[in-house]
């Protein structure tokens, strides 16, 4: 199980007194070249930040947006849901607010940085940490639907061969996979420090071939209902979503 590493996402700006631009604004100083350099650097940072933010949100965040459409696709089967992936506490909290829905979560990474609401879910037994490269501590068909996000992208085929069948084992009505697009590579690189390993983003054709090779079948009925519901609301997911038969 890969440990989370502390990530400092904010960059400390130097004090204004130490910035050459401040002292160089005197009319007799050489302000124009320094000001130009400062503006260029600022523009570069803004462009880099935009490129990362626009290249795709996490697939776990996408799960929140997809819940209404998953309910349309699976109906009563959404009564007992297991989510597997990072930030599972947030997903479980959202699912528990839905009518007639019970939810549990498995966090593939350490929960040492969990906030108070997440720790409360852990104490109540709704969320647990587990290494998904090994068999999950649940009996067969313990859940009606299993949703996995931002977890399989970090597994090699060696471990996928064990993890995917096990996820299907604990679900009775379907397995839903949220996987990143290869075009999200730049955004996912930022998560390297968080998850401790490089991401392996695959194309839809790769996943489809893999499902066939491992004997996992597409849930055509759920796929059709999901796409119809999404189309009516003009919902376009930022991640690949696969519906599989358990």
From TrEMBL:
<keyword id="KW-0812">Transmembrane</keyword>
<dbReference type="GO" id="GO:0045488">
    <property type="term" value="P:pectin metabolic process"/>
</dbReference>
<keyword id="KW-1133">Transmembrane helix</keyword>
<keyword id="KW-0472">Membrane</keyword>
<dbReference type="InterPro" id="IPR044689">
    <property type="entry name" value="CGR2/3"/>
</dbReference>
<protein>
    <recommendedName>
        <fullName>Methyltransferase type 11 domain-containing protein</fullName>
    </recommendedName>
</protein>
<dbReference type="GO" id="GO:0008168">
    <property type="term" value="F:methyltransferase activity"/>
</dbReference>
<feature type="transmembrane region" description="Helical">
    <location>
        <begin position="34"/>
        <end position="52"/>
    </location>
</feature>
<dbReference type="InterPro" id="IPR029063">
    <property type="entry name" value="SAM-dependent_MTases_sf"/>
</dbReference>
């Amino acid at each position: 199980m890969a440990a989370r590493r502390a990530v400092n996402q904010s960059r400390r700006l130097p004090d204004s007194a130490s910035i050459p631009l401040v002292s160089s604004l005197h009319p007799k100083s050489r302000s124009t070249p320094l000001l130009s350099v400062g503006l260029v650097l600022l523009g570069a940072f803004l462009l880099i930040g935009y490129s990362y933010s626009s290249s795709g949100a996490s697939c776990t965040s996408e799960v929140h947006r997809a819940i209404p459409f998953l309910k349309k696709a699976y109906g009563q089967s959404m009564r007992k849901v297991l989510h597997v992936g990072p930030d599972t506490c947030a997903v479980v909290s959202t699912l528990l607010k839905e009518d007639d829905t019970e939810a549990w979560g498995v966090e593939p990474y350490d929960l040492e940085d969990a906030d108070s609401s997440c720790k409360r879910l852990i104490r109540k037994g709704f969320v647990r940490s587990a290494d998904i490269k090994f068999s999950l501590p649940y009996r067969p068909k313990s859940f009606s639907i299993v949703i996995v996000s931002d977890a399989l992208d970090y597994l090699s085929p060696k471990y996928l061969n064990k993890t995917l069948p096990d996820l299907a084992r604990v679900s009775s009505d379907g397995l839903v996979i949220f996987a990143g697009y290869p075009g999200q590579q730049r955004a996912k690189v930022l998560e390297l420090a968080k998850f401790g390993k490089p991401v392996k983003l695959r194309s839809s054709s790769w996943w489809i071939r893999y499902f066939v090779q491992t004997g996992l079948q597409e849930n055509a009925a759920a796929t059709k209902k999901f796409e119809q519901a999404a189309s009516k609301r003009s919902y376009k997911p930022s991640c690949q979503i696969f519906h599989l038969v358990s």
